[in-house]
Give the backbone structure.
Amino acid sequence: MHPDHRSSVVVVGAGLAGLVAADALARRNRSVTVVVPGGRAGGVLGTVHHDGWLVERSADCFLAARPEGVALVERLGLEDELIGVEPVARRALVWHAGRTLPVPAGFRLMAPGRAWPVASSRILSIAGRARLLWERFVPRRSTADDESLESFAVRRLGREAFDRLVQPLAAGIWTADPARLSMAAACPDFLAMERRHGSLWSGERARLRQSAAPEASGARYGQFVTLASGMETLPRRLAEELRGCGVRFIDGTATAISRAADGRWRVSGDLPESVSADAVIVTTPAPVSSRLLATVDQGLADELAGIGYAGSCIVSLGFARDRVTHPLDAAGLVIPRIAGRRILAVSFSSSKFPGRAPRGCVLLRVFVGGALDPDAMRLPDDALVELALSEVEQILGTRGEPRLARVERWDRAMPQYHVGHVARVARIEAAAARHPGLALAGAAYDGVGIPQVIASGQKAAACCLTLPGSS
Ligand SMILES: Cc1cc2nc3c(=O)[nH]c(=O)nc-3n(C[C@H](O)[C@H](O)[C@H](O)COP(=O)(O)OP(=O)(O)OC[C@H]3O[C@@H](n4cnc5c(N)ncnc54)[C@H](O)[C@@H]3O)c2cc1C
């Protein structure tokens, strides 16, 4: 037991998962130490303020339909900062045949909620629309084993709807290879719709009858929120609160975790002091967690190493409004892979949320790379800016030099939930459970979205709260 007689926990990593776990434990009177390189809280979350521009380095919003994100914002007293997507931007556009066209109203990632918007959409050929609307008659799959997003969507909606609608929308969310992305891990609700209602059409109709959600298309933009001062405010405020209630932050990089004969966990590495505790929560990306835990349990380490990661780059470009021809009347634009362009998507940041650009200016975030274009990560910054500029000039009619150009590189930052991921996570959890006092949390396991990551931090903390002697 820790000298102050409270049970002690060391949290490795201070992304949102680590901070939330530390918070849940500190509030239950545990002695908590957080180890993080550079002492910096927030992980991938970060916001840059520069001359009236507000540029998100990674996540720019989160889903409010799940309770965890909004609940955390409220607990931290930040509810006055919560803002929703502007009504004009509650839809997504798709690049098709040289034009930006709206995703059919009511079409949610792969679920057609209404017939007429699909029947009249110019994104699909007549045959493609007919095939999509035939979805309600496609029999449900008889087996329950996992399936890729591509296989599921082609089977239910047809190849054309996949290529022109589902693939670009999914790439904009997961930056993944849809032929490998697990339906069970990434889209369990759509799988459940097929199982329960026989089709996505019937499932989505049933969902709409139950919810009062306003109509939107693409990625349910009406249900996304952000903080007026930027996403970084969330981890920063949480870290301030943790420091205020005695949580210790140690600036250092962990290289190994071990368990002593007396059952205490020890974290070693490039640290100013040795750290040991009754329990450890590992919230680092899975490849790092694999290396840290190799001497504790090689089987667990191998499973963690099996979770792949993809990278992407975000080029943020700011323009004077009169330098952009496109009305930017959407949350953003996704580009189908079959279009053969080099960018995945463009988020219209200043259309989505107020305060992202100085008056009279607009802010665009251009996404490049992802699992299907790993070479993009190797381009130098100036080449990435040039690439993004040339694409937005052709697609959105931008002209001249941008007032702001900023590149964010996210090398191997996004966990890839490949087919079989749910079973792998079950094996990881079972292996971790064999080591009392060990828990794992973070985006690698049960969802990459901010609410899911918060839930994973809370779940890991709950594991440590139930340790013997931890009442
Ligand atoms: C580009 C991008 C855009 C995104 N957009 C959205 C979005 O719009 N909406 C949304 O909901 N989600 C979005 N996400 C996902 C979401 O932001 C992440 O899933 C979430 O923030 C990850 O939190 P985490 O704590 O699991 O991991 P991380 O934030 O990666 O934190 C990991 C922590 O581990 C630490 N660490 C690493 N190695 C060591 C070591 N050896 N020793 C000690 N500490 C270590 C790191 O310093 C860091 O503190 C996006 C992600 C990315 C990358």
Remarks:
- The two ends are 13 Å apart (CA to CA).
